[in-house]
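ok so i was messing around last nite and threw this chain in just to see what happens. nothing serious, just curious
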Amino acid sequence: MTATPEPVFQSIYPFTGELINSYPIMNRRDIVERAERAEKMFAYWRQQPLGERARCFQHLAVLLRENADKLATLITREMGKHISEARAEIEKCAWTCAYFAKEGPAMLSEISVPTEYSNKIVFEPIGAVLAVMPWNFPFWQVFRYAVPALLAGNVTILKHAPSVCGCALAIEDLFRKAGFPEGVFQVLIIEVADVEFAIRQPVVQGITLTGSETAGSKVASIAGRYVKKTVLELGGSDPVIVLDDADVEKAAKVAVQSRMMNAGQSCICGKRFLITRHNADEFTAAVLEEVKKINQGDPFGQQTRMGPMARIDLADNLERQMRRSIERGATIAWGGERSGCNFQPTLLLNGQANMPVFNEETFGPLAAIFVSRTENEMIKRANATSYGLGASIWSKDTERAELIARKIEAGAVFINAMVKSDPRLPFGGIKLSGYGRELSEIGMKEFCNIKTISTAT
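result:
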């Protein structure tokens, strides 16, 4: 009798389709074991001096920088981003570790609020944070939530995307080598069907998810059933709003950079380029020139600027969105070709609100320009989406741009700059882009028990 093969997740190099490695899928006994270890470690870790927890992150920052080339190569092999972008991802993780190690303790300082009583507000950890993370920034997405959560005294269990198991285990190894006790950071290689079982574990008191709105809705529903805190960072369809007085050349250059970074596989990519007739010709020509400069190919190549998309199914879906948009009147100004995961940088013109490139999240190197009759119409279009993650506004009149920014329905609006995450600033969205915040002092406290201690005097 032939033995049933052990179920595994496969890591595949998207540029060539080469199988890199296979990883055995864990079962529910593994989940219970890690939950029990997390419970024991939480009792220990939360009692460690804040300065000692911060020192572990200082060590982690050093390790990340010392191993940057090796870790960046792993990222590029598993999900295909250009090696230069992978190195930048590792550096951003190191910067975040160093930043919170230095500034984080002050963020957790107790607050005195005098009334007729003596009142203190203190910030305490809540338990284990279960993280369900995506593949597109396989290190940064993890560090973005984990650094503030663990510094606050929580522990964490990571359920990473199946295609980047190597990155997940490498992160776990880094935490161990940086001096974090066994059980502070653990990885679960499990099927989606077992996520609910993980959420049910008593030590899990918070769940953070970065991914699609479908996944976020399901996880939030399960977490709500067990009354557990959630933070969701979901999709985005970020508008790039180019006002009539904008520096068109700069706006076009940064818009293309934003759209095409990570092969367009970012929630905060600028996805909808919104302009008026006033500068339509000039902006379109400038964008087209920038798109033509992007050489897609070998993610390790010095002459290429963009690697492949991360998986075949993702490239298939983007092509479907492009074809449906063309059926509804869009035209290809550049690109539109693909081979496997290798998707040529593409620019669509004649964009309309009834097209997938307007009303869906397009997760790949596909830019679309939408021309409005007036600036007011353009601003209304910016908000005519079910998403609300980020937006950028381009104008030489920054005071006017800020007034408009206050009308844009998004978690972040950048004026004359590309939308990006920064450990010093809160990050997150509204509407179908999710809720809650990561990073900064605000994100640090998402998984804290904000406790009032009041004493009669």
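not much to say yet. The chain has two domains: 8-234+433-456, 238-422.
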